[in-house]
Amino acid sequence: MRISSTLLQRSKQLIDKYALYVPKTGSFPKGFEVGYTASGVKKNGSLDLGVILNTNKSRPSTAAAVFTTNKFKAAPVLTSKKVLETARGKNINAIVVNSGCANSVTGDLGMKDAQVMIDLVNDKIGQKNSTLVMSTGVIGQRLQMDKISTGINKIFGEEKFGSDFNSWLNVAKSICTTDTFPKLVTSRFKLPSGTEYTLTGMAKGAGMICPNMATLLGFIVTDLPIESKALQKMLTFATTRSFNCISVDGDMSTNDTICMLANGAIDTKEINEDSKDFEQVKLQVTEFAQRLAQLVVRDGEGSTKFVTVNVKNALHFEDAKIIAESISNSMLVKTALYGQDANWGRILCAIGYAKLNDLKSLDVNKINVSFIATDNSEPRELKLVANGVPQLEIDETRASEILALNDLEVSVDLGTGDQAAQFWTCDLSHEYVTINGDYRS
Amino acid sequence: MRISSTLLQRSKQLIDKYALYVPKTGSFPKGFEVGYTASGVKKNGSLDLGVILNTNKSRPSTAAAVFTTNKFKAAPVLTSKKVLETARGKNINAIVVNSGCANSVTGDLGMKDAQVMIDLVNDKIGQKNSTLVMSTGVIGQRLQMDKISTGINKIFGEEKFGSDFNSWLNVAKSICTTDTFPKLVTSRFKLPSGTEYTLTGMAKGAGMICPNMATLLGFIVTDLPIESKALQKMLTFATTRSFNCISVDGDMSTNDTICMLANGAIDTKEINEDSKDFEQVKLQVTEFAQRLAQLVVRDGEGSTKFVTVNVKNALHFEDAKIIAESISNSMLVKTALYGQDANWGRILCAIGYAKLNDLKSLDVNKINVSFIATDNSEPRELKLVANGVPQLEIDETRASEILALNDLEVSVDLGTGDQAAQFWTCDLSHEYVTINGDYRS
């Protein structure tokens, strides 16, 4: 079953993640412009400051966000949360983001710095309480506000805003830290009425590599008009099934933030919770958020595999998710995946210690566990456990083939209900230990 | 801050764990005899079968146990649980243990095999429902009952039982799997009345390396007479503060069992919950169990460090424990320890995402975090966070010295109450990934 380290190395080198996952073109939502610069906060001179701006004036924009639940919340998280609450999710027209410094665990001074970033952008756009701020990078260090201030001046001055592909890609680059590729996704959707709209998203993160790299940021913007409460409901639903369903190392940072702006630049009736299109848009946003979140796992520190953990036929969604998370976070499952070992025992074990809300969710005699190939090769499914009974004579050749894939699926059929949850995880490699054992040095 | 890999290698080689942690002599509780053999279940011919026997007839023995809460419980766990319940914790006079095969996820046949092991030993001692069984090793494989049966005959036949140091050490060896040294602890205690008694314990485990190596087993025997309910209460209390407070990789196996026998061979009044000595014996058993549990962490797979996580001045014991566990299980904290990096950010982060029962347990403005040297060098304490404020000018030379130690302490003072909890953990190394990436192969 063991694959030689040479082969592992080779299969790793075969993936040019930038070529595979970074788009080369795209169209973007109406009424948004973006700006970016290298402020100097990042010592190597890379892009490290970005602004997303809503320029549509036809109707008020709406905003929603999901923030980290870590009890140590960074200054930009606390500050943006307050802005959003005061604005009641309306008239947020700018997001300013910097990388290189997370402005986290920086006390009162850090809170002031976050507010100054907001005030600088509010001044530029001539509006009050209309800007959200986000920061990512090293924690426990103060922002170099002179550089940030000069950078914001530059973006609103000589650097100019743009709405073309390169501008969006550069903003996606400006929020990166240990990411090996920028994460930009854009997609057009159609509603039954024929109305077309666009979702564009960016994310950063290459591990819940908290909080030194202070961590997961995600932005989604759309030109569809969505009422603010409906928008928050959609984003919360989508985040629960996307950004909250990924595991690199199971650590949640002080800065995690996912936010969404809807500017209503498309001339159609505003969608609220009672609209007939509400459910469809919610699902489209969810699927879109999943694509974005999956890119974070694909860039998981040191990872060689992208693994979908699919828990189905569960009594409750929440318990399906708890089981998917338990498998996805298990160090033993992750090392087995790295070692390309069809170790069903570790998967069962992680299911067995998951802390379920309802014990009836799991019946040890009904469970089915399989590896699923994602490359159209046959047989697609390799059964490891059938109705609670381990398959002692597994086709080891086929197991090797599936486990050698860069993408694969672990399928768990609980057989206790009709609910399902997915998680996306990566393997735990020597490289992960090297990256995280040496980072701060 | 980074220590060269050569230095890491060297500091690792300096620890001869066998010489440091395996006793060379010891005295044992009255009325117990032990037997052992190499049954052939382990292919390499190592010891793999052991029996602990109570021979004291002066009064009935008592027994207690704490079993894994994993929903996939191995056959010996389910079978022993039933024996203990039927016996109501009384008249258990033998424990039979094998290594090399965990008899886990083996269905009805596995249940029968576990019962046969019990029946064989019951027959030998001429008693009914008096034997507990435990197994550890590979899961999903059936026990080779012919070898087990021959082995039990040998132990009760030509191999003979003994109560000397070598017999005890050999039983400790017979329960090992990936352990690099046998874990045997024996100690004499004195009660205020002048009565002396002995605790002897054995454990196996080198990681919660579940369930392939199927995992943590611990046995404690004493010659003190302890009423069965009081014994269960003591063992549960002790396990909560010892075997349940260790982390190698956070995975809990299908076979985890800690059990305790008290044979009352010492001529003194039986201790029950109302006895004046109850609290003292409980604390002595707890401290003893901690010594035994710590040996499991010291043998943690691939580990180079033994780290005590000390959470004090907490509002509740349970929340102190949840925080200690969160720090101890964090992959980022573990890799930072391996990299000898004074990364307080990762420790704060793990504290911040711990799922507390009472949010008032954590006040982000009151928290103190330090590294503590354990080698009597000064200054003993290196403050990383004081009253919620990170110490930005840490003495990096001193940090390097403390982090280069094989033993160190992470101290977290929550400042919200007067409760405390401890966890013992180890670092996450390249070696761990190698061991667990390649195991089943």
Brief account:
The structure is a homodimer of 441-residue chains. By secondary structure, chain A is an alpha+beta fold.
Describe this protein's structure.
Chains A, B: Substrate binds at residues 177, 204, 215, 301, 436, 441. Chain A has 441 residues and is an alpha+beta fold. The first copy, chain A, has 2 domains: 15-298, L-amino peptidase D-ALA esterase/amidase, CATH 3.60.70.12; 306-438, ArgJ beta chain, C-terminal domain (Ubiquitin-like (UB roll)). In chain A, 34% of the residues lie in helices and 23% in strands. Chain A has helices at residues 5-13, 17-21, 75-87, 107-125, 145-155, 165-174, 228-240, 278-298, 317-329, 331-338, 344-352, 396-403, 430-438, and strands spanning 32-37, 49-54, 62-67, 94-101, 131-138, 183-190, 196-204, 217-222, 246-247, 257-262, 306-314, 368-373, 381-386, 389-390, 407-413, 419-426. Chain A has a 7-stranded mixed sheet with strand order 9-16-11-15-12-13-14, sandwiched between helices. A 5-stranded mixed sheet of chain A has the order 3-10-8-7-6, sandwiched between helices. In chain A, helix 3 (75-87) crosses helix 4, helix 4 runs parallel beside helix 5 and helix 9 crosses helix 11. The model of chain A is unreliable at 1-13 and 208-214 (pLDDT under 50). At the A-B interface, helix 10, helix 11, strand 14 and helix 13 of A face helix 10, helix 11, strand 14 and helix 13 of B.
| CATH topology (level 3) name of the largest domain in chain A | L-amino peptidase D-ALA esterase/amidase
The helix fraction of chain A, in percent, is: 25-40%
Mean pLDDT of chain A: 89
Biggest β-sheet strands, sense, barrel of chain A: 7 strands, mixed
The assigned structural class of chain A equals: alpha+beta
**How large a portion of the residues of chain A is in β-strands, by DSSP E?**
15-25%
N- to C-terminal distance of chain A:
37 Å
CATH superfamily of the largest domain in chain A: L-amino peptidase D-ALA esterase/amidase
Low-confidence stretches of chain A: 1-13, 208-214
Total DSSP E strands of chain A = 16
Which chains make the largest contact? A-B, 60 and 60 residues
Q: Tell me what the CATH architecture of the largest domain in chain A is.
A: 4-Layer Sandwich
Give the CATH level 1 class of the largest domain in chain A: Alpha Beta
- Assembly annotation: homodimer
- Domain tally of chain A: 2
Overall spatial form of chain A: globular
SSE order of chain A in H/E notation? HHEEEHEHEHHEEEHEEHEHHHEEEHEEH
